[in-house]
Amino acid sequence: MFDQYLIRKDSLKNDYIDGKAVGFQFAVRIADYRGCFLSLHNGYYISCDGTEYPRELQTFEINGKAPRTYEELKWCAWEHWDYDDEGIVHVKKEGGLEKGTHHIGLQQSILAQYGYMPWDEEWVKNPPVPGSGAGAGKTETICYFDLELQDTCGCTCGA
Amino acid sequence: MAIKRGVSLYSYQQTQFFRQLDWKGQIREVRENLGTDGIEIINQQLIPHYPFPSEEFLYDFRSYMARYNMNAVTMDVYLDVHQFRDHVMTHGEAAEHLKNDIRLAAKMGFKNVRCLVLVPIDVIEACIPTAEKYDIRIGKEIHAPWPIKPGNYVQPKKGMAAGINFRAVDEMIELRERTKSPYVGLVPDFGIFQYRPSEVTIAYVKRHAKNPEAVDWILEHAPEYGHDELIDVVDEKFPGHGIPVNQIDRVALHKSCCAPEDILDVLPYIVSIHGKFYNMTEIPGKPGCYEDKCIDYETPMKYLRENGYDGYINSEFEGQRDQQDMGEENLVSEIEQVRRHHEMLRRLTGEA
């Protein structure tokens, strides 16, 4: 669900540290009709122009806090990602993305469930790798987006 | 006494997603355009900072409901057993979770919580004292493909259906009879009377299948196979079809999991009812009258009417998610779909 609307179309930007592009970011919504405990958030399948960027290269920014890894989020059992809120996915990529349009593939993995299931113990030991469809909640396909990189400059001039 | 109409704000999930109406706007829509008072909510959709909403929000909600003379019928609550990630939630932890939802429902003025069909029966039993203290009934959802009468159902091993406990309804009725607690009940979902896949579902699955003819084959041949067997045959006949098991289940549906008269078996235990629907279309030759062509409403509603059910049927629109993979021009209007559903409910309750 929300297949075509999981990424905000005008949100693709590069991330900069000291004026140097170190990766890219985009804004996402939850692929469900309800929010979730942050601990359930298990990362994304992300591809950009054919290259995959695994969960270890991603951090997630939500609730006004600095971006966190999924190892950190795992222990946020009492913090909620509200249904109405947008989160920012940051992806490490030296040099960031080139100017222009990029083809992004996305599948969200949130270990939301409706009660006990046969694979529960397995998910504690080996959580599903995002992209397999398992743990993908209400949007089991990989959704594709053609997004225009919004910024072209690492400074605060807005160019 | 008559059947009462309400809306689960679940129906307006897309409207909320695109920030076209917030919960206050949704409540006004129910009051001003549907002319009724029943409100059901999804806790994790509506409540900011769940499960720790502010006092301000709680007061605002009760106050706004009072302003429009609304009735907080049922709050739908969940069970995410992986919340703690280092272990599967124990039944004791699951009971604490449900108790907290019961207290929250009471603070917001609700009369009932709807818990999911997969919540173990001992978890519900452990919550009865809390339900009594806060005067909140616990209604376990009867959701397709769970039957009211299990008969000779075979336990599936694949997909969501693998989690099915076919005795769930019987267990709830036994618990009610053993404890004599009126706080134990059921929330039937009209999806149990769905007898074929909705057109919008078929179209969605076809758009995403690598070979859409696999979907046509399933539609034609599903009745010939058992649940798990069908999945194997589809894998064999259409290698690399790319249709997830849960999507195969949705298009393979060819017979409702409950007969319309089964509703009479659970009538004394009904807390409230989910009026599930996917696509309301005009009935040919009856301008201004609508139906969902894949769900039998008419027969079960006749039984409910004739046998004096006087609780709520709350609209639960679910067709929007099958139309969100295309451009904005293809998004369906939830507001219009629910208005059509209430035209049908008014007609079938004899209100119109």
Primary descriptors:
heterodimer, A: 159 residues, mainly beta, 2 helices, 10 strands, globular, B: 352 residues, alpha/beta, 41% helix, 15% strand
Written description of the protein model:
The complex is a heterodimer of chains A (159) and B (352). Chain A is mainly beta. Chain A is globular. The termini of chain A are far apart. Chain B starts with a strand and ends with a helix. Chain B has 352 residues and is of the alpha/beta class. Chain B has an eight-stranded parallel beta sheet. A two-stranded antiparallel sheet of chain B has the order 8-9. Chain B is 41% helix and 15% strand. The interface between A and B is large, with 38 and 46 residues.
Helices and strands in order:
The complex is a heterodimer of chains A (159) and B (352).
Chain A (H helix, E strand, L loop, with lengths): L12 E5 L2 E9 L7 E2 L3 E8 L2 E2 L5 E4 L8 H4 L6 E2 L5 E6 L8 E10 L9 H6 L17 E6 L11
Antiparallel strand pairs in A: 1-2, 2-8, 3-7, 4-5, 4-9, 6-8, 9-10
Chain B lengths: L3 E5 L4 H5 L5 H12 L3 E5 H4 L8 H13 L3 E6 L14 H17 L4 E4 L5 H14 L2 E6 L25 H12 L4 E5 L10 H10 L4 H9 L5 H11 L7 H8 L10 H4 L6 E5 L2 E4 L2 E7 L5 H9 L5 E6 L16 H16 L3
Parallel strand pairs in B: 1-2, 1-10, 2-3, 3-4, 4-5, 5-6, 7-10
Antiparallel strand pairs in B: 8-9
Helix pairs in contact in B: 5-6
